[in-house]
Amino acid sequence: MTSRHGTTTLWRPTGPKELDLVRELKWRAWPARLLGQPFFYPVLNEDYAVKIARDWNVKHDGAGFVTRFEVESQFLRRYPVRQAGGQTILELWVPAAELDDFNAHMAGEIEVVHEFR
Q1: 3-state secondary structure of 64
Q2: Helices in 1-117 by DSSP H: which ranges?
Q3: Cα(18)–Cα(89) distance, rounded to whole angstroms?
Q4: Which of 26, 55, 63, 101 is deepest in the core (most CB within 10 A)?
């Protein structure tokens, strides 16, 4: 997790369908979770996001993307860092019901930094 100027850099591995929804939201918000998706999972390091996009999204969706975005650091303190495996496999679990509030605390646009096919 990288912090700068009051914001924290997060990454999100995503497939093409979710990326299309982000594009429809003008690169400023994450779409609502689907039924059966109780959490939004941004990750805290780029390497972990790359691994998921390359090894999981490509296999299941034909393409994988790594996005990078900034969120107000003070706001993120409400979400404990969760270790989902090894020491560098770190993520936040944002309840789906709080995603609009999370989006409201984003700074700038969501950008695609890696693409895998």
Answers
A1: strand
A2: 16-24, 46-52, 58-61, 73-76, 99-104
A3: 22
A4: 63
